[in-house]
User: Fold this.
Amino acid sequence: MPKTGAAAPLAPVALFDLAQALAAEDIAVRAIADPLVAVCGMSVDSRAVEPGNLFVCKGRAFKPPYLADAVARGACAYLVEDDEGLRDLIAVAPGVPHLSVQNVRRAMAAVAPVIYHHPDRALTVVGITGTKGKSTVAYMLHAILAAAGVEASVLGSIEADDGVEHFESHNTTPEAPELWRHLRNTVDAGRRTMVMEVSSQGLKYDRVRGLSFDIACFLNIGRDHISALEHPSFEDYFASKLRIFGQCETAVVNLDSDRVDEILAAAEDGAARVVTLHTVHDAAAPAEGSGGAAGRSAEVSVEDARPADFVAEDLHASEEGIAFTVGERASDGTLARHALTVGVPGFFNVDNALAACAIARLMGVGYDAIARGLSQVRIPGRMELLGSADGRVLALVDYAHNELSFKMLFSSVKRQYPGRRVVAVFGAPGDKAQERRRVLPQVAGAYADLIIYTEEDPAHERVEDICAELAAHTPEGVAYRVMPDREEAVAYALTQALAEAQPSIVLLLAKGDETRQHRGDEYPEVKSDLSLARELLQG
Assistant:
């Protein structure tokens, strides 16, 4: 991974100490060979192993040669799930000490903090979850903290930046060994704050197990990641998200979310303190496809009629972005109001800005820094608007990729850019979130004049097959094309728009500023949607 600094050397930890940590978590363990063998760091990827590492053998696709490769690169011990495959691993790495356990995911979450010497104890950790908006809130909060003079690390679906490593992300929430390495790097880099997105997978599969969040924010809930390989049902997805409250001190809850009664109940059951948010959407800025309770009065809460702690109101477009007023409720119930502007298009981004504002206030940040940070924020590949020289063709690059984000984005675009022909370019990922192949064409088809289906991280599936599924669910009467090569699809959409007499807006969705495509087990480099739009419209 690219390095931006130097991490302090780690003190080695003996296998005996790791076995003790596992026993403390009621994880049965059997240590083979010398329990005094010391490890330094750990990895789940044999290609990333460094000398002295503990290597974790996990996953349905794991093969014994991966262990052999890890040992050749310097792994001095390994962690493995005790099953029939253990004999094959011992054969390829004879004499190498190992810890065998019944649940390797829980085990690696238990030993990672020990190996990296509990860096969380020196950090303020903020976790953000929800079906949409996680990246946006993380970047907004990061910008606010920077304006306040606080250098924070960030982990999420766009990038990882911990002060030592900085690279484009592949997973929203990394596996436990990577997560704790990033926390350690953050401390070594002299930072004291980690802002991270927390995915349903990260919660369900114990990636964040054992990590205490000082603040956990729940933005919203909608259907996503429903598949045989992820969540078998919406209820499983929702329940996984709610687990974040079981490991946080303060919970921040958006009252405008669907299922808010259940969200609040879980927050109040798990957190020591619950802080609530509400956005007042009036006629000038109606709610944009949230599917939630947007529009509820600022003075009405859900079950107990308590007012929201932070309220956004008076939303209106300005030259700098979207202006609004935030009201922070005092102990006597009155609202202290402050005028803010968020420099990102889309009225729905006020919900995200309000969440970032509330978290910042809980961290002791003043409104001057909040105002500066929100006005200057830029999220790479998020709501990035580019135009042709004559302004007739606009390209909007965004990471919108699920039903909830599509509803908000398309309804916002239709209202903010009336009269423009709408062209949408998107695909669906392979090996997961199969529901998107049905719902995304239906949402886009309600707004778009032309849809172009293309590549979006196909993983182990054929792009053509994914596009065929998307096409099969296109509403009758909606024009569409299938162009598997994403670069060709973007070029076609923009050149055709430039040739049309009618003003157009071309939506390039899901990939944002990403420069990698997930194909098979590899992540080859590609041109990002943002760079392609710049070349074709402003080149």
User: Anything to note?
Assistant: The first strand starts at residue 13 and ends at 14. The first helix runs from residue 15 to 24. The two ends are 31 Å apart (CA to CA).
